[in-house]
Every structure is written in structure tokens, then in C-alpha cells.
Amino acid sequence: MILSNTQKSFAAKSNSYFILLIFLIIPLTTNYCQLTTDNNFFSPYNRLKFGNYLYKDKDYLRAAKEFKEYLKVYSNDTVQFKFSNSFFKIGRFTEAADNFKGLFFSSTLSEEARLMFFESNFFQNDFNKFRNLADQDVYLSLKYRKEIERLKFTTYFFDIATLPAENIILEPFPDSVQSQIAKFYIQKKIPLHKNPTTAAILSTLLPGAGKIYTGEVGDGITALVTTALSAYLAYTNFNAGHQFRGWLFAGMTAFFYGGNIYGSAASAQIYNARIRFDFDKEVKFYFEQRNYFLPQIDL
User: Fold this and answer.
1) For position 156, which CATH number holds?
2) Is the entire prediction scored with pTM above 0.90?
């Protein structure tokens, strides 16, 4: 069938209009789909977008909820890490550790997840459990092995476990801080405690001496003067024939004397508790100021 020139011209124009129409429709359709997705506030895309905004704004609890909804639909290592880290940031360390374990294998963030797993366990304050975990190679990070080892030896400053040798504890720490760590080691190993028995014996021999031994000089002098004055009044009243007042002051003397002995022993215990508290506070502040010598990992 042979087409006339007019028919050929009409067909060519029709094809041109059709192609032009296609180029007009495709962008409109794409924009409509994008608009539909953007208006669906509960789509995975918008959940993730809002979760990232909350995470950046440090609203970690709500961010975790948005990440959780996204992860129900899609698997993403970065989102899983942020989801786990959100629990870490708000102090829910058990949940954080459990979720970081999900990134241990076949993940681009496996090494970072392992480090954060150990950090999460460290801040649960079960230091014996932490040391047991650190001794299990299955959990250790090759990249952050030294950081985890530092955390392990740091735990010895926070509980009553027997200290390893000084050189073993110092080895993973930078040379620039080893002198300070060594100072903490000596304070922990040989604390400047006062013996409650010694304090009691001193106050038995000389009222108030035990208090002076524990650093409470004012209380010690007061105890000595009070006990001596009461004993003197008892003695003078007995000599003057005032039996009632003599026995009254004798009873007071016995009370002051016995209380002074007990108080001196208690003073030594209080002194020791204060030493432990001050040490714990100083060590914690020192490590917190340096973020426990850990790298900042925050995606």
C-alpha cells in the first residue's frame, strides 16, 4: 500500500506528538509517585529520614522506634548500628549489647559493633562478667583489641578483685599516662587506711588518741577533755562525801570513755570509706575525661 505525501506527513507529525506526550507523562508520573511517597509519613523511607533527624538531634529513644520500623522492612547495617547505639546513648546497655551482637558476622560494621558490645557490657558495672567476656576470643575485635584490653584492666580499679602485676596493667595504656595509672595502682594496692582496732586501743590507753589517729584532732581533744573533766568531778565529789554526785559523774565518765573507744573504731571505718570514695571518684573522673581511651564511633 503506497501512502500519499500528505498521509506520510500526517503520520510523521502523529509520531512526533506521541513521543512528545510520552516525555511529558513520564516526569509527571515520577513526580506523582515521589509526592505520594513523601506524603506517606509512615513509609520506610520517611521513617528512616525522621529517625536520622531524631538521632542527630540526640532524641535517641524516639529515633530507636523509627529505626525499628524501618528494619522490619529493610536490612541495613548502618541503621542497625544506629538502632543499637540509640540504646547505648540512653543508658539501656543490656539492650544495646544484645543488638550490637546482631552485627558481629557478615557486616561491614562488625569491628565497630564488637567494640560497642564491650563498651555496653563495661557500663553495666558487672566487671567480673566483663573480664570473662574479654577473655573469650569469639567476641573480641581484631581492630580494637587493645582498646578492649584497656577496658579490661580498667575494671580492676573499680571493684575488689585482686590486682594483676603492675606491668601487665600498664602495658596497654599510652606511655604518656602510665605514670598516672601507676599512681592509681599503688593507691589501690596499698590504700592509706586506718586500722579500727589500732584506733580503739589508742583511745583505751588515752581517751581521744584514736580520734587523733584518724585525723579528727578536734574530736580527739574534746573527748580527752570531756572524759578527764568528768573523771575529775567524780573524784572530787567522792572525796567531798557527795556519793550521789560522785556516782553520777563516775557513770558519765564510763559512758564517755566507752563511747570514745567505740567512736574511735567507727571513725577509722568512716575514714577508710572516705578514702575509698575519694579514690573511686578520682579514678572515674580521670577515665571519663578521657572517654576511657576509646575512639568515638558515631555514624
Assistant:
1) 1.25.40
2) no
